[in-house]
Write a structure and sequence with these properties.
It contains 16 helices and 18 strands. Strands 2-1-3-4-5 form a five-stranded parallel sheet, sandwiched between helices. It folds into four domains: about 1-150, 3-Layer(aba) Sandwich (Rossmann fold); about 165-285, Transcription Regulator spoIIAA, CATH 3.30.750.210; about 285-405, 2-Layer Sandwich (Transcription Regulator spoIIAA), CATH 3.30.750; about 410-475, Nucleic acid-binding proteins (OB fold (Dihydrolipoamide Acetyltransferase, E2P), Beta Barrel). It has about 475 residues and is α/β, with parallel strands linked by helices. Helix 1 (about 10-25) links the parallel strand 1 (about 1-5) and strand 2 (about 30). It is globular, with a radius of gyration of 23 Å. It has helices spanning about 10-25, 50-65, 80-90, 105-110, 115-120, 140-145, 150-160, 185-190, 200-210, 240-250, 270-280, 295-300, 305-320, 340-350, 380-400, 470-475, and strands spanning about 1-5, 30, 40-45, 75-80, 95, 170-175, 175, 195, 215-220, 255-260, 285, 325-330, 355-360, 410-415, 420-425, 430-435, 450-455, 460-470.
Length: about 475
């Protein structure tokens, strides 16, 4: 039996999909990228953007038409708002939270589905059966949910070994949920309150990835720098966790880049920046969401930080990590945003000169506080502000990439580029780079190489291959 899985949204959803893949394949399912071949069709959804939800509707309508010709099962999980979940319950066979992924075999069994797993338990299919303890009881998980024990449920999810999407890049969830309740954000309603993963588990997963030769590791959470605050006094702080990870990766004797996303300015302390500066393996790239450069808009967003708070931590980052790249997130057209308030955001962009910014036009999400307010900034004004901010971003980013012309920089090669005969990768600061691959050689994928930068755009660069990084490590070791 085959399964098809569509993953939408952020890196956390990708991480969840890796554990879901493990569960499905332990049940005996084989993955297919062809929907027509699948017996089980699933989506890891994202309610944060309406566009992603619209894509889910398109898929499920198509899949339900397929049921007229073939027996199949559909399921939905991921970040789903209650209002969206209620509508999807009528369209999908199964709808469940990501925390309940470990109970999927039990769900399918109670749904009356014969799976390779259930057949094996009856002796109809040769081969080893998964252990019963691999899949916790749905009844037990339901009871824990009623009792509010989200930590116990999440521990079951995190205990599943992921089927990593890449042999050289890995995501490690360290925290789930959010306690900040920004007025525009769906995450507290889709993932619940903040829960930190035990640091022992996180460090063990880091050690295992280092032993397997992984080049890049990204720590994931909705607010990574609030890690441990839900277990205050009983767990490491985020800075301490980073320090321990830095020690493990520095001792590997080869280049490793460790990233994290996303921190919140309210919890971003100087101690985190100091730890990054102390460890070569902790990548000099920080994604710090600003959302707005105006204090009144930030207050209505319930961000709990001011523009000066943000400037202060950026000044410290520039002082301690002078070569670091800085990314951010921005919402334009938030309810009530005036032209003057938008110009304050524009001013911060001119001052800070971000390397990258993910700029979104505001759209209300059902269930959030701001959804009750009038969406009073016209769409054409939002679009015009997005363009103006993007133009300012491009000016600052081009200054940064232009300084790289002629320099030799290490990059991690991640795959083929869209341009024929080229491979693509990124710098330590996550700036995309492409280079001509000799004789279309793909053996560089997953390796560190050094390129000389020959041309730039605001958000990417092109270079020529100078040497393979492994050779450099061997030379330095000799």
């Amino acid at each position: 039996m085959r399964y098809f899985l569509l993953t939408l949204g952020c890196q956390m959803n990708i991480s969840d999909s890796e554990r879901l893949t493990t569960v499905l394949e332990k049940m005996g399912y084989v993955r297919t990228e062809n929907e027509a071949e699948a017996d089980l069709l699933g989506v890891i959804a994202c309610s944060v953007r309406q566009k992603a939800i619209d894509k889910v509707y398109g898929k499920i309508h198509r899949w339900n038409r397929m049921k007229e010709k073939k027996a199949l099962i559909t399921f939905l999980t991921g970040c789903v708002l209650p209002a969206d979940k209620e509508r999807f319950l009528k369209l999908f066979d199964l709808v469940f939270s990501t925390n309940e992924i470990p109970a999927l075999p039990d769900m399918l069994s109670q749904y009356g589905i014969t799976t390779p797993y259930s057949s094996r338990t009856q002796g109809d299919v040769p081969g080893p059966s998964p252990r019963k303890e691999d899949f916790p009881s749905l009844v037990k998980i339901a009871r824990e949910r009623r009792e509010g024990d989200d930590r116990s449920i999440l521990d079951r999810l995190w205990e599943i070994e992921p089927s990593y999407h890449s042999p050289f890049e890995a995501f490690i969830p360290i925290q789930n949920g959010c306690d900040k309740f920004c007025t525009y954000c769906a995450v507290p309603f889709t993932r619940g309150r903040e829960v930190s993963r035990p640091s022992g588990e996180v460090l063990e997963e880091v050690r295992m990835l280092v032993e397997r030769g992984y080049r890049s590791i990204t720590l994931l959470g909705q607010n990574v720098n609030s890690y441990g605050l839900d277990k205050k006094g009983k767990e490491l702080t985020f800075a301490s966790l980073l320090d321990e990870i830095g020690k493990i990766c520095d001792a590997a004797g080869r280049r490793i880049w460790v990233y994290f996303t996303s921190p919140h300015p309210r919890d971003m302390g100087e101690d985190v920046v100091d730890v990054i500066a102390a460890h070569p393996s902790l990548a000099k790239q920080i994604h710090l969401p600003l959302q707005s450069g105006d204090d009144e808009v930030l207050r209505r967003m319930n961000r709990k930080h001011t523009e000066e708070d943000y400037r202060k931590i950026v000044r410290y980052i520039r002082e301690r990590l002078p070569g670091a790249t800085l990314f951010t997130d921005i919402i334009v057209g938030f309810p009530g945003e005036t032209e003057e308030q938008f110009r304050n955001t524009l001013g911060i962009f001119r001052e800070i000169r971000f390397n990258m910014a993910y700029i979104a036009m505001y759209s209300p999400r059902p269930g959030t506080v701001s959804a009750r307010w009038k969406d009073d900034v016209p769409h054409e004004v939002k679009r015009e502000r997005l363009h103006r901010l993007t133009e300012e971003l491009e000016r600052g980013a081009l200054e940064a990439t232009s300084r790289m012309l002629g320099r030799e920089v290490p990059i991690l090669v991640t795959g083929k580029d869209r341009k024929h005969g080229f491979l693509a990768g990124h710098t330590e600061g996550r700036i995309p780079v492409r280079f001509a691959s000799p004789a279309a050689d793909t053996s560089f994928i997953g390796e560190f190489i050094t390129v000389r930068i020959t041309s730039v755009t605001p958000f990417s660069m092109e270079g020529e291959l100078i040497r393979v990084e492994e050779e450099k490590w061997q030379e330095s070791a000799g």
